[in-house]
Amino acid sequence: MTGPAEFTYRRVHRASRELLFDCLTQPGHLTRFWGPAGTSTPIDAITVDLRPGGVFATTMVSDDDGSSYAMRAVYVEVRRPEKLAWIEPGPGGGMTTTITLTELGEGRTEVVTRLANAAAMLASPEGRKGFLTSLDRFGGYVAALTGPA
Amino acid sequence: MTATAAGDDLSLTFAALADPTRRTILARLAAGEATVGQLAEPFSLTQQAVSKHIKVLERAGLITRTQVAQSRPCRLEPARFDTAAAWIGRQRKTWEDRYDRLDEHLAALAAGPGEATEPRGEAK
After folding, report:
1. Looking at the complex, does the CB of residue A115 fall below 8 Å from at least one CB of chain B?
2. Is B68 within a domain?
3. Which of B29, B60, B69, B119: disulfide with B12, CB 3.0–4.6 Å?
4. What is the pTM of this model?
5. Residue A36 with chain B: CB contacts under 8 Å
């Protein structure tokens, strides 16, 4: 399932898979590095419900002008310490982010981050089912956030 | 926010690109304009089936169809590809920065066991 709608980023870190996985899934860690340079990610604006169907949400705030960018996603796969995946539902299928952690020995871990358009996932019945479940849960989460109209 | 609208457009673009037949059509159009009939030739598809793919590509802004000629040839819209390429560039930058900062965070963790809330000049 490769195509131009994908993006893969590889990186080797000097840390165990367990620690890296925790960094990627614990608000106390995420707030230290999640926002790219020039932004911060306040810990009270991070939601992590670490289970398939659970919410993963962050808000990145620009250091310059205070403008913010909110990310709202739902975990699709949670397998400490080797794999983590979430989907950001959206028109046209939304997007999935999959992070795979592989031990290289000598305390090094390869982290592969793959972004893929979820439209491609919908080709298989299982993919479709999983996606719809995520969407339902995400819809419920958004509804709870926004409250009754 | 306009970022959301741009994101929706991108979803359309990437959804359109996810199909191999449509990618082949785009590859053909990279060589120059073509009519629906010409685009259908290499496939064992009917013109109607190809027309459907063309509509998806059109809606995604990846191609346009000339209004003047009766055959209404299709042509690539490079601007949309640039948008998609720019998106990929932004993602690369975001994740690069993010993992750079993760490395700094890991270094701080290693320097000060059990404590990483404040950057510190010296490790215990």
Report:
1. yes
2. yes
3. B60
4. 0.64
5. 93-94, 97-98, 101
